[in-house]
Amino acid sequence: xxxxxxxxxxxxxxxxxxxxxxxxxxxxxxxxxxxxxxxxxxxxxxxxxxxxxxxxxxxxxxxxxxxxxxxxxxxxxxxxxxxxxxxxxxxxxxxxxxxxxxxxxxxxxxxxxxxxxxxxxxxxxxxxxxxxxxxxxxxxxxxxxxxxxxxxxxxxxxxxxxxxxxxxxxxxxxxxxxxxxxxxxxxxxxxxxxxxxxxxxxxxxxxxxxxxxxxxxxxxxxxxxxxxxxxxxxxxxxxxxxxxxxxxxxxxxxxxxxxxxxxxxxxxxxxxxxxxxxxxxxxxxxxxxxxxxxxxxxxxxxxxxxxxxxxxxxxxx
Amino acid sequence: xxxxxxxxxxxxxxxxxxxxxxxxxxxxxxxxxxxxxxxxxxxxxxxxxxxxxxxxxxxxxxxxxxxxxxxxxxxxxxxxxxxxxxxxxxxxxxxxxxxxxxxxxxxxxxxxxxxxxxxxxxxxxxxxxxxxxxxxxxxxxxxxxxxxxxxxxxxxxxxxxxxxxxxxxxxxxxxxxxxxxxxxxxxxxxxxxxxxxxxxxxxxxxxxxxxxxxxxxxxxxxxxxxxxxxxxxxxxxxxxxxxxxxxxxxxxxxxxxxxxxxxxxxxxxxxxxxxxxxxxxxxxxxxxxxxxxxxxxxxxxxxxxxxxxxxxxxxxxxxxxxxxxxxxxxxxxxxxxxxxxxxxxxxxxxxxxxxxxxxxxxxxxxxxxxxxxxxxxxxxxxxxxxxxxxxxxxxxxxxxxxxxxxxxxxxxxxxxxxxxxxxxxxxxxxxxxxxxxxxxxxxxxxxxxxxxxxxxxxxxxxxxxxxxxxxxxxxxxxxxxxxxxxxxxxxxxxxxxxxxxxxxxxxxxxxxxxxxxxxxxxxxxxxxxxxxxxxxxx
Lengths: 317, 538
Fold this sequence. Notes:
Number of helices of chain B: 16
Largest sheet of chain A: none
Strand order of the largest sheet of chain B: 15-14-16-12-17
CATH architecture of the largest domain in chain A: Orthogonal Bundle
Shape of chain B: globular
Number of strands of chain A: 0
Distance between the termini of chain B: 49 Å
Largest sheet of chain B: 5 strands, mixed
Helix content of chain B: 25-40%
Helix content of chain A: over 70%
Radius of gyration of chain B: 24 Å
CATH class of the largest domain in chain A: Mainly Alpha
Shape of chain A: globular
Oligomer: heterodimer
């Protein structure tokens, strides 16, 4: 198991290296830089001043020199300072990752509960109008873009006279306000996850329901609840967990838009701003952070197979 | 689409309506007469749709920085505001300089600093007295490498003969010096900010009406009243009236609208169109509908490196093809025809009727004739780079595309983000480019950036000695009426000789405020100069 985990971690590290090189090179090919953005509103800026500012930030160096400097610093644990704000990148990422992870975890939990419940119910109600209704709802939820759903949530709440409190508060500073600020965007993010899980759970449950061990259990007089939740759902969980892992990645990308709509100072918002202002150091660190989270989540998903299926555990051992 | 609007002889009617609209918008809508005396206390919340990357005023020109600094800092000279002062009209108001004298030759400026002013009680400056050493340190740092460096181009020496006097000598006459010192980036900092005393990226120490008590990036900038602020109202009240101000960086437009409707924002700052405004008005009782002409305008740059655009007749033809009044009316619902100097600068832009005659009177037939004369009777195709300044701006580009198609010119739109577009402009890597010009506050800024060799907005490489001489000449004209004439003459010269870039449209700018807010006068410069006199009745 440990060897397996280490192998995955090494592979993940190589993926991060590849991602950082791709981001570093491609983002510098996009026209414009942070200096022209910082001085964009001025009429009295001279070309000499632009050159002076670029030299101060090292942007006048060849791209290879810039990359080796940046990579060397990162390997030494230093993500540098933001070209835009001059603040340490590590601090910016650290402050932003907490709201994003809170949002993502709440959203995935809501999605998990809704998706499993509706998937199992749909399987149990197979062929009934209730099954059809749940499938239609899940198809709709899959089709609705998160941007639209977020805006609809915000304006819908305003239409009934509820306004999400401002400004943003952390859970530790004001849990009541924080939950009001997180729950609605989390629901908007979670519906897609719930819909995908629901459809997969339903089909997995129906497949498992035909298995020999289910027929044997039914013949032994096992109750329906124990049969479907204790035997059926547990055996249907492997594909569901796999999907949960990939959905977490999709959900993280969704936070970029949702955080802007709901004014949450998270990693998505930070990345959006950094791209707009050509803040190379922050973009690279944010992308690496997203990559790292995705790799860790996928590793946890892989390891969890062993928890729910003893056969996998034995194979990994 | 817009051909129908071209026809029917409606141009005169539209011109008159635009004239009336421009006249009405030159001054902010006067709020209903309020007999109540201002009440001290309370709090307002303003949205600014960008974070302050940091608080170093020397590091960037970002409005997110300078709009926030304005609440805590002062300049030597400020922009006055009031019912009788138009948005965009610079009226010098004493700030840290209580008075000033200009020598007869116009080359020496002596500023008498306000006495008894103290810095905010924030370590390490901790409430010490403000002196000329602070002004000297700030200006020297700006001249050495601040974003304000270009504003001192005409300055030769700056000295401080005593604690309360600053003397500036100029290399040449420059009548915009006072306005340069009142520029939105020209905040005065304590000398400690430049001697390693504190980190000006993170700490703000000013002499302004409020103190930044807390700044949470992406969340809120919270200000509390500065008890030692020197400002007084006309009636002698101690300013500011408000105890607290919050600036919220709400970046999504719909989220801002929702927050305003819910009363979570008192004063609106930033883009808003008339449709959105109407929806807000329907939901917010007593809303103050304050409108001005935008301090930015759309401009089309035509790169002479692309053969057809090297011919003045082609540029003139394109100018005559665009029906700006119809476009502004349909897409923006109001505003003003652009000019070499933007129409928000009401006393420096050409008079409305002349600007409309130059840029707001389409004549497709004459345009086709000019194209034929230039050898392009069958038209041509060019790449039209459009910077993404939002939905309405892109619709303007599409309107222009259709107007040009009507005279046989095919514009193939290429959308880019604003940073990329500015970079392409500086590199000269475009054929035609449509962008929103920076919010300049003086005709001189338009001239020097667009038409002088090396100017930061001279994307078309204009290098005209006669024009350069005219621009330098206006910088030295002390008499306001004579200078205004010279500024108009330059604009006429540019229209006749260069016609590049083509000014397009300055939209109506909306500044709604909640009914509880009094004394609010939006102003072109950043930093909310009227805010110290704002008060609330709840």
